[in-house]
Design a protein that fits this description.
homodimer; 486 residues; alpha/beta; Aspartate Aminotransferase, domain 2; 7-stranded mixed beta sheet; 11 strands; 11% strand
Chain lengths: 486, 486
């Protein structure tokens, strides 16, 4: 006779089954953080790989049981984490999630609704509709039918923006892979390119995210035309020249919150240039988008609503565990190319009978309800609470910049626009700057990023932790100074 | 003065902050399941949308606080769930997650490692390497350097399989979008198609998953050539004819566990045909892959290791919350086309200094450590425990088939191969079958799927709940019989 299967997470008994297991997870998270004792483990990749390898067999013949497995692996993960909740872990757009958002995420895992059909996610899909509609209206407040899709992050959002643009200019030969019966691949049809019109050209600044290059490659489009951005932002005159020199159709991708410097492209002027050239504008606001929640800083995003598509990540300046990406469109009909049918998920007669068709809401099929944690966060904090978190991190960046300016041994690249601060030791060359970063990293003392700007390599602090204190900022400075002098 | 920011999930204080919030989540999960009182809420989409809309503002000016927000939204999600932990929720490859896997997933959310660079995920990336290496060796046991990527599910895995095949046949003009400096989009270069060779043609059975059609469309490839599968599986002779008639290069996609009928294509014979034609073989074992853990049923997958790429989802017959997808490759060098560089994540000098380069492990950038829950499950249950869960569900399917055969009013489509059982009332037409499914759905009594086979529409039960009892199976039969007679 077989042993009873281990308990499930769902149903009425699920909550009781989860309780002791979550106790073990919390104990292990705490023990791991204490064991680590800093922003990341010391010793670098080799030490971490060595400790991980000593955990034992990945797939033993006989299991160790839930309690042992949870305690061992969760503690190892925590002890070996670069934990963004530590203020000295400030390299990337890698946010420290709010406890309430992480707690909400547990419910997504326990209930496991899958967003590809209504009969796998009745309330989860209804909730997603409410939240995406509300957030789309924040991004395109004047539009009559704004909409937004939930994505795995800025990379997927940017890819979708290119895909939608590709299809707008493809002459309507096909949409979403079309419909075929049986939930299965249907009759083959060869894709034809409309004649007399070139492929879509994506035009981006050199300051744009690497995902545009990768998306164009994935989608079989020509590589993006890259406009140099010596000042860190996309210049409208340079864009005008690029659009004049490159045959269309064009999709221009501007950035509100560049990865390296946290800068915002001049959106209104770029929108004007796009309008003059008949080019579509996409704005990658993965980083800067949540400024919309701040009464103080919202004006920095003026012009955002002139974009046809907008990328926003709430797992950056929105304190969500990954993933919490969005792609917003000014008009919901722009999403039509994603329409896709598979009889087992959205047969015509089911759709006619009123079952919502969810398959066109993502290029994925099975899809976790990442919207739940976002919904809980928006409701718990409200606009005021979220705006305050944004404002706090914006202030921290100004504070760090002040302190760097007052430190003779350090150079500040520029006053921060968002929450990214670039700085470097006054007399260091690029090799030294890169080495300082790695030294802090492998000694387990700080996680700082790196960015090239103005032809030089800089240390990068991305401040996303609203609990960081002035002392933490001083400590970052002291650590860099100390590494320089050795 | 601003209020103190809400607590974070990470660090030493994170565990204490999470404890009461998780208490609220568990209370709400239980209350929601009790309120629902069945596999899904009654009333259909309209009732669910109505209840969801009454929850109040998505983004209030002032927040309601963590406790209220968690209790309200999690209870609404649970009350409005189609909960796969209820044995009468058996429509899709929509698994009831194990409590231990959902608990592990919390740690992923709380620590929020992002798998795109080592300095965001030291231990998480080391753990992923261990687990993917071990699972790849299960899938391609004879290969010297098997490897596997973690994906968002079968859809992304199948898309990657097509992408890798596209690049193998693209003449080496580019890889992964190439390298450019600054972590940013680099110089534009137009992608050229190699001359004298047609584009990759994907060849699939009509029984294949719809994601192949969508992937070809996304990647700018011709739509797949579809080989009819009147018996539900891909016939080697028919494949031979298709490969003879279609100019190459070819990628053949076979299926181990079809979505509609749970059938397994004859892998060894198909591999022979592919070898004879010089075609690459991909196997979509999203559903059937975990048979590898069962001593009893593993032989059903003979031939799987002859595939160049294999899709496996552990969020189906592996009891993981979504997502837990894998794409396995026979040789790790096959992943080279995904190589991608962005200076802020994997600058050459950092890589030379020993920092692992993770960007080629996924088309995503930010990426949640979905591997943690899988690692915990493999360790806790071991091969024996996982195999026993597979065997239990396989037995349940045979048991349901037995009971249907003994029910005069019902027809069984065929003896199940995996855990999918197709049946229909003896005298019903397709319209009635579809209506029975919708009636059970909107009355909140059962979630059954639908599938077309042999030219007719069938009700589909996908048995993935190892806690289902003989009584549950009888109840499913009784519900369908009852709906027929009304």
């Amino acid at each position: 006779m077989r042993a009873a299967p281990p308990p499930l997470a769902g149903g009425v008994p699920g909550a009781d089954a989860l309780r002791p297991l979550l106790g073990a997870v919390l104990d292990a998270l705490r023990a791991g953080a204490e064991e680590r004792g800093g922003p990341l483990p010391a010793g670098g990749p080799e030490a971490v790989a060595h400790r991980t390898a000593r955990l034992g067999a990945v797939l033993p013949e006989t299991g160790t049981g839930p309690d042992e497995a949870l305690r061992t692996l969760v503690q190892a993960l925590a002890a070996g984490a670069a934990d963004p909740a530590d203020p000295l872990c400030a390299a990337h757009l890698h946010t420290p999630p709010l406890a309430l958002a992480a707690a909400a995420d547990l419910a997504a895992s326990a209930l496991n609704p899958s967003m590809d059909s209504w009969d796998q996610a009745p309330a989860a899909s209804a909730l997603e509709t409410l939240v995406t509609t509300a957030l789309a209206a924040e991004i395109h407040p004047g539009a009559p039918h704004p909409d937004a899709l939930v994505t795995t992050g800025g990379t997927e959002s940017n890819q979708l923006a290119l895909l939608l643009a590709r299809e707008r200019h493809a002459g309507g030969h096909h949409a979403g892979g079309g419909h075929t019966g049986g939930g299965h691949t249907g009759k083959g049809h060869t894709r034809e390119r409309p004649t007399g019109k070139g492929p879509l050209r994506t035009v981006v600044g050199a300051n744009a995210h690497h995902s545009f290059r990768r998306a164009a490659w994935l989608l079989g489009l020509p590589a993006p035309v890259v406009v140099p951005t010596p000042r860190g932002v996309l210049d409208p005159t340079a864009l005008h020249t690029a659009l004049t020199d490159t045959p269309g159709p064009h999709l221009v991708a501007a950035t509100a919150g560049t990865t390296d410097e946290g800068l915002i492209d001049p959106l209104p002027a770029l929108a004007d240039v796009c309008a003059a050239h008949g080019a579509d504008l996409h704005v990658d606001a993965a980083y800067g988008g949540p400024l919309l929640f701040s009464r103080t800083h919202r004006p920095l995003l003026d012009g955002l609503d002139r974009a046809r598509t907008v990328t926003v990540d709430l797992h950056k300046l929105g304190w969500q565990p990954a993933a919490a990406g969005l792609l917003a469109v000014r008009d919901t009909t722009d999403l039509a190319p994603l329409a896709h049918t598979a009889d087992y998920l959205n047969a015509d007669d089911d759709t006619d009978a009123g079952l919502p068709d969810l398959l066109g809401r993502s290029p994925r099929t099975t899809r976790r309800p990442d919207v739940l944690k976002t919904a809980v966060t928006l409701r718990a904090l409200g606009r005021t609470g979220l705006g305050a978190l944004v404002d706090t991190c914006m202030d921290l960046a100004q504070d760090l910049a002040d302190r760097i300016e007052k430190t003779p041994a350090l150079d500040l690249r520029a006053r921060p626009v968002l929450t990214t601060v670039l700085f470097r030791p006054h007399h260091a060359d690029d090799t030294t700057v890169a080495a300082i970063r790695r030294t802090l990293l492998t000694s387990g003392r700080a996680v700082l990023g790196r960015a090239r700007a103005d032809g030089r390599l800089w240390l990068k602090a991305t401040l996303l932790n609203p609990h960081a204190t002035p002392d933490d900022l001083d400590q970052l400075i002291t650590l860099v100074e100390g590494s320089t002098h050795r």
